[in-house]
Amino acid sequence: IAEVKVNSMHSLKSVLYLDLILDVNGVGMLYDLLRSHWLQALLKIYECLQNYLGKRPMPVTLQARALNHEVVELLREAPQSGEIKELRRLLRAPHLRGATIKRHEITGDITVARVINGGLADRSGLLYAGDKLVEVNGVPVEGLEPEQVINILALSQGTIMFKLIPVSDRPVSNQTTLYVRAMADYCPLQDPAIPCADAGLPFKKGEILQIVDQNDALWWQARKVSDLSACAGLIPSNHLLKRKQREFWWSQPFQPHLCLKSSMSGFRRSMRLCRRKSWNNQQSCYARCPSSCYSALAAPYEEVVRYQRHPADRNRLIVLVGPAGVGVNELRRRLISSNPREFQSAVPHTTRVQKSYEMNGREYHYVSKETFENMVYSHRMLEYGEYKGYLYGTSVDAVRTVLDEGKICVIDLEPQGIQIARTHELKPYIIFIKPSSISCMRQTRKNARIITDYYVNMKFKEEDLQEMEDSAKKMEDQFGQFFDQVIVNDNLQEASAQLLSAVHRAQDEPQWVPAMWICSDTQP
Ligand SMILES: Nc1ncnc2c1ncn2[C@@H]1O[C@H](COP(=O)(O)OP(=O)(O)OP(=O)(O)O)[C@@H](O)[C@H]1O
Description:
Elements: H1 6-21, H2 27-35, H3 37-55, H4 60-77, H5 82-92, E1 99-103, E2 110-115, H6 120-124, E3 132-136, E4 139-140, H7 146-155, E5 162-165, E6 178-182, E7 208-213, E8 219-224, E9 233-236, H8 238-251, H9 269-280, H10 285-288, H11 290-293, E10 301-307, E11 318-321, H12 328-338, E12 343-344, E13 349-350, E14 365-366, H13 369-377, E15 381-387, E16 390-395, H14 396-404, E17 408-412, H15 418-421, E18 429-435, H16 438-444, E19 449-450, E20 458-459, H17 462-479, E21 485-489, H18 492-508, E22 511-514, H19 515-519
Helix pairs in contact: 1-2, 3-4, 4-5
The protein binds adenosine-5'-triphosphate.
């Protein structure tokens, strides 16, 4: 394969494609072979290596790191045999990630700053944080900068010999493993403060991390639960990440309309319109939804535990979130009508007058303005708003009524309401309904109808689809850390089936939930 020139492969494929159309014998098999992921990956790796050899880059480490990263990504597409898995593991944890070193400001000594949990140095049991480095492969390191020592290591091949003076008090490990949900994104390559970007662990909000070392007040060691076989990487400690978030937040220009424009959702039209009106009238982030916008400044990690609902326990509340028109109500309606004895919505409260054909507790709970406001002040409303002078809202009591009947309560909320619903009692499972691409929606939403501020049952226009996409992106950016599940609503039948199985999974399978919901009976 190494002899094959990549460019000529591409032209060969084009020729074969023509032959394939003409149905020449055996060409189909060859065409499929050349199109296969593993061969493509192999060729790309070969191309990378040629490029790398041609450039003979300096310094070697940076280029090697980029190549390493590229190859790991390519191997992701290759068939997952045992060897490929091992190769990916090794490439993601090369020997340089086994430990980090630092230079003592006064003495100039090079010492081991930390040993990376699960890395080669750790597994060898020979290196400890605080050990003083004297020689690497026979080269004295006295007077050198850490980068120079790293270059010696990078250029070394085979066995690496360290001469070192062990730290006098080798630390006894008494770490307890902690699991957290990342509430913010982190990219070590964009963090100038990280002691060693190579050893950093990038993560996205919502990912669950296993924290294995908190010895350093600033830099912890962690791995992702989705890949516990990988060696640990450095992440900013709770305290440090909070400081970074705060600095970043203050450095941003003031944006009074940063909040999401609200959508309507809920089965009753007034309730939907009231939400839209209420949220569209928002003046600024600070005035109306500090909980959501300031959440970036709240704890950057949330401690989580694995929770499996006991069959005798109440069901978990199911919350659907999504941009206006994405199909939250359609999916909710389909789910409930698939088995009304199992699923039910919460009946909203309103201050408007009951109509002759309505029944208290069926369409709405009809209450006085005073009662409604009391419910708001005593935090018994998950969300509420005003429409044509009347108040509308979904209460915790209404949700509790459904749960007490042993049913699964399915509601939809504005994302701003997620944090209010996240309580020990309701243990909500949050499902984000995401729009498919605009080109797909053009096809699937041909006969669909939306409710806008001024019209009911309007056909979707191009700008509605664009707004849906923009709004979904903003929701994911601001609230993605709270989503337990994301369902793309492309094909309605498929999305409904996915919703049904997600709802059952939430009730019957172990899930990561905030530790606070489980460890304390008194916490919210
Ligand atoms: N996957 C889909 N394919 C085709 N049509 C869909 C799909 N999902 C939803 N629809 C249709 O799109 C329209 C809007 O859906 P729905 O009323 O559920 O939106 P929503 O998310 O609840 O937003 P809003 O609260 O603003 O109405 C409805 O006509 C619905 O039947």
